Amino acid sequence: MIFTKMMRSYSETIKTEMMSRITGSINEEEFLDRMGKFYDINREIITINIHFNELWNPALLLWSISTLTSLVLNCYNIVLLFDNKDSENSIGIHIRTYVSFAAIFSVIVGSGDIIDISDDTLSFLFKYPICKLSEPEAHQVEMLIYTLSTHKPIIRASDIFTVRTELLASISGTVVTYVLVALQFTPAWKN
């Protein structure tokens, strides 16, 4: 995802610039100027995240529901194909199932990476030796920490659920449950 790459680049730049201040590579004025720019960039990232959520909220929710439904039906069909030993139609169903799972997995892992990068940046900033900085520099770092901790980039689906790595376990449980329930009714449908 582009957003993940942007967050990773932002995080690495913050770490590099802050370490260069400790080593004395840049002076106080440059550091304050760069910290102000980091703060501005972070506000832009927050704005992008808000617009992304507003734009994709209904689409992401509909995509999640349709992909999950497709995944459940395709898994059920795969189980039925193994029962009937029918291999003519199985390749297409296998491909659809794997593509559905890969799509869900990539979206969930991508949004989890964004959150992990944000947490990693915060962890670095909390460990940063603020006592070696002047008062204005320390204030800028504290302001950046506050902004990063209060406005984390999160991808939501219409404010119904947050797309995180923990969602993968929930989706897997749902797929397995519905496939097992459908398999229990299969003998009744054949009669």
Automatic annotation (TrEMBL):
Its main location: membrane. GO terms for cellular component: plasma membrane. This is Uncharacterized protein. Keywords: Cell membrane, Membrane, Transmembrane, Transmembrane helix. The keyword Cell membrane applies. The chain crosses the membrane at residues 60-83, 95-115, 167-186. The keyword Membrane applies. It comes from Cryptolaemus montrouzieri. It is found in: Cell membrane. It is a multi-pass membrane protein. It comes from the Eukaryota. Pfam families: 7tm_7 (PF08395).
